[in-house]
């Protein structure tokens, strides 16, 4: 059975939201719309439970706009692809979208030809082994602010969460002391780097449990950085309230 790619549409105007969803259905591609949201905050709650492959979002929305949503997804859900669908053809929007690795920036109204071309490109990217990653240490200098350091740590973790990582590893990569790195991150983010990394790992594990139904729990754990399957199960239960097998069963 061919893999389907789970998609969420985020748009505050109900007519446009339903129209985009309808276009997905009519094209008959491997992309299945599994949910809709009216703003970024609703989308985050939906993503927490469904962990999609693709999010198509408007920019101008109440409560949380599309760029704020894109920023959150970029750092918290490493493998979710994001596409902006907007009525605003402004450089600043596009520039910010690029900084959060948004895959495409399309203007409304979306034609079927545009959508088919987009989904063909997304299928190639979702099927690839992963993005090319670069170290962040070259971006840092002695004058950076705690906020800059926190962003760099988040980027490093996003790129390396699937490996065994210690605070010493990160400090060495970024040329800071362990204490200074940890204090800067906690001051900005309100949690330690390792706790943040655990969130990344569990979010990716949830996605894999949902998408790869035949993959065993041990393999999922190894893929997100936990070589000990029992430890992985305990961490997953602590974060979600369910063991990995229970989480997968609930989805089914």
Automatic annotation (TrEMBL):
Presence of keyword Transmembrane: no
Record-linked Pfam families: HTH_18 (PF12833), Response_reg (PF00072)
Domain Response regulatory as annotated: residue spans: 6-123
GO MF annotation terms: DNA-binding transcription factor activity; sequence-specific DNA binding
A biological-process GO annotation: phosphorelay signal transduction system
4-aspartylphosphate PTM sites in chain numbering: 58
Entry-linked InterPro entries: CheY-like_superfamily, Homeodomain-like_sf, HTH_AraC, Sig_transdc_resp-reg_receiver, Tscrpt_reg_AraC-type_HTH
Keyword Transcription regulation on entry: yes
Domain HTH araC/xylS-type residue range list: 151-250
Keywords: DNA-binding, Phosphoprotein, Transcription, Transcription regulation
PANTHER family per record: ARAC-FAMILY TRANSCRIPTIONAL REGULATOR, HTH-TYPE TRANSCRIPTIONAL REGULATOR EXSA
Record-given protein name: AraC family transcriptional regulator
